[in-house]
Amino acid sequence: MMSDLSDLLLTPAEMAAVDAAAAASGIDSFSLMERAGSAIAAAVLRLHPGAQRFVVLCGPGNNGGDAYVAARHLQESGAALTLFHLGDPSRLKGDAARARAGCASQGQELGLYRPEPGDVVMDGLFGAGLGREVPAEVRALIGRVTDAGIPVLAIDLPSGLDGRTGKVLGAAFRAQNTITFMTRKPGHLLMPGRELCGHLEVFDIGIPARIVRAEAGGVIVENTPEAWKGVLPAEQLETHKYKRGHLVVFSGEADKTGAARMSAISGLKAGAGLVTIAAPGAAMVANAAHLTAIMLHPVDDKPQLEGWLADKRLQTFVLGPGFGIGDRARGFVSALAERHLVLDADGISSFKDDPDQLFALFKGEPRLVLTPHEGEFARLFPDIAGDDALGKVDKAVAAARRANAAIVYKGADTVIASPDGRALINTNAPAWLATAGSGDVLAGIIGGLLAQGLPAFEAAAAGVWLHGEAGQRAGKGLTAEDLAVEVRPL
């Protein structure tokens, strides 16, 4: 196991460049394959000590070479083993051919495998190198293995999974365990890849970290504090509430005030110095009945808002939760064009008929954060959402560049993207965060961080991470109110 490179996510193309650079530096590439194969064999023996037969599936490339080495080690250990190959193994080249030559079992054609009770499948067909849909015979095999409930250990990635996007290319194995080398791929974290990989282990096979880091683009990484802690404001003894930022959250009408309150309390608990709910006059009483630490200010229309904005201390806003869709939302956003804004829910949907109207307001230094779920994303960016050639990271980055905004593309694999091309994949959010009002809490947390001076992208990323941590603390069965209570400052 390794940890030195645990922060990196390398695309398959970047990992191929690492392999090439390692070979160019004088490292024997077959020795790397030998280490990979021995790690796989050790893992499968550890994970499945009661297996009656190990079924090794060998593909036509280096993933298959790793599998041949693993098969040799399993044979030497005395394990029962059957090997099946895809295509003509005599056409293998380089390290893969050498690995096959060292394996006593020459194997059978892939289509001949029929699952039996007690089998454990070792999937070495494609790994991360697949860029097209799996062939029909592989699709049929995946179906047989899945139907039989045979446990699968995947080498690098479950075959049929795109290592860059996490998408299924026609069909893919659902692995209990996946063994990969040096670093993870985006496809290990993006859905549905994350689920299909099962338990993921990363093994160091001896490529120097300097080579790996030199070839890593560093554009896509996991969303952890390492990605944004460098911009956190220093805590100072001599401070006051305005130095910690004033966050304003807009409320909906009298019968739709709860969402704004959850955003407001979340922003306050995330560290904003003070928080005000700006509410229509008719909603003041409904809000006042539930607030103590949160202030209230009446704002009914755009002129009233513009008058209030003469106070230049008002720099950060959340608009959308429970606000309502329509002209009023669009007017308020236009009044806030020079301020920092988290636009969520109804605020996003208010621009579905003319997204460019929104994007034109926020030029220059990014100060807008958009927090769309799948449907809202498609309303603002229909062409990007509909491009099946793009993965979720690609879509989020394209949207961030178009909108000149930090994008929080929500879901089980939330992606946070910046207009400069950076992207983070979030992994700490529990499944039970998928509940009504959870997004209102997230918007408030991001707003609270923006109010404290974090740049838009870092505020969005840190907010998503804090949201996940709060969900972990609140536990299964949480409500949005429970979640807001568990928000902690950075």
Automatic annotation (TrEMBL):
AMP binds at residues 410-414, 439. Gene3D superfamilies: 3.40.1190.20, YjeF N-terminal domain (3.40.50.10260). Binds 1 potassium ion per subunit. Its cofactor is K(+); Mg(2+). Its EC number is 4.2.1.136, 5.1.99.6. Keywords: ATP-binding, Isomerase, Lyase, Metal-binding, Multifunctional enzyme, NAD, NADP, Nucleotide-binding, Potassium. It catalyses: (6S)-NADPHX + ADP = AMP + phosphate + NADPH + H(+); (6S)-NADHX + ADP = AMP + phosphate + NADH + H(+); (6R)-NADHX = (6S)-NADHX; (6R)-NADPHX = (6S)-NADPHX. GO terms for biological process: metabolite repair; nicotinamide nucleotide metabolic process. Signal peptide: none annotated. HAMAP family: NADHX_dehydratase, NADHX_epimerase. PANTHER family: ATP-DEPENDENT (S)-NAD(P)H-HYDRATE DEHYDRATASE (PTHR12592:SF0), ATP-DEPENDENT (S)-NAD(P)H-HYDRATE DEHYDRATASE FAMILY MEMBER (PTHR12592). Belongs to the NnrD/CARKD family. Catalyzes the dehydration of the S-form of NAD(P)HX at the expense of ADP, which is converted to AMP. Together with NAD(P)HX epimerase, which catalyzes the epimerization of the S- and R-forms, the enzyme allows the repair of both epimers of NAD(P)HX, a damaged form of NAD(P)H that is a result of enzymatic or heat-dependent hydration. This is Bifunctional NAD(P)H-hydrate repair enzyme. It comes from Rhizobium vallis. The gene is nnrE.
